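Q: I have two molecules that I believe assemble together. Could you output structure tokens for the complex as a whole instead of separate predictions?
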Amino acid sequence: MSKGWPLWEIFVRSENGLAHKHVGSLHAADAEMAVQNARDLYTRRNEGVSIWVVKSSDIVATDPSQSDELFAPSEDKAYRHATFYHVPEGVKNL
Amino acid sequence: MSDLRVEYVLRLGDSALVLAQRTCAWVGHAAVMEEDVALANVALDLFGQAKLWLDYAGEIEGDGRDADAFAFARDSGAFYNLLLVEQPNGNFADTIVRGYFYDAWSALALKELTHSRDERIAAIAAKSAKETAYHLCRSEDWLLRLGDGTELSHERAQHAVNALWRFTGELFLGDDVDLQMTQAGIGFDPATLREPWLARVESALQTATLERPVEGWMQRGGKQGRHTEALGYLLAEMQVLPRSYAGATW
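A: Yes, here they are, computed for all two components at once.
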């Protein structure tokens, strides 16, 4: 049965103000069912306040064979990291 | 009055408990993992509702009985659930239609009970109403999918609707307990739910391309402790452990 159902990627926002985060994937016949299944699979322990579902086939991903050219060049550029700022006390989600 | 209130609350708790026990028998058997978890969630919600109702019934009764005592130490004649919810799981369509008929009723019943003069009843109803609203959304969605799905799913959904229809009359049949609780401002008159229930269910059946069965003989008696054969087997399985090993814990 599930073999005929497309795969969906699930994104959950854990609390207002935070970004939706990828939490996993599931099978569902359509978007409506994907949202319901996501609710039942990924938010049953109070994990979220909002859910996004995206058809896995609609996601365009980088090619692993291109990892060197895409990601290696940034490895030695420490000056791009914001390590010289002091984070004020009490700021949690920076 | 307090005796009647115990029975009234037990009826609510027993329907939730019996449907929970039925529904959780799907765990490990649903066609897809996603549905397996979803059904388990529904069952757990219903167990939670049952526990709140049965614990409260014990408090009103004042004999030291709690939800476990009510669930595991009563025989079928002392269960007051609706006949609808004790019907066997059958195939997936049977389970969905049974759940849908109950959810559509339960959503209306809980809404009435949130206005109860008994504050605990109103509070339990308010908490349960949110869960049941989701159950109803899910079971109605599946009813449409099955009815308006493949030839086979349509046939099975129609068969389930026809077979379970005769247990829906009891949902709207009041007795002396209902009457007294309604007069005391604690409960509601079940007959008033019939019209909104029919409106919703008929509309859903139509969208699902399913036929609404013609009115016929309606089964009754669950609320008074007269059950179909199915309940005995369900209780035997549910109660065997605590009855064989009294006081067992883990």
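A: One point stands out. Residues 176 and 225 of chain B are 14 Å apart (CA to CA).
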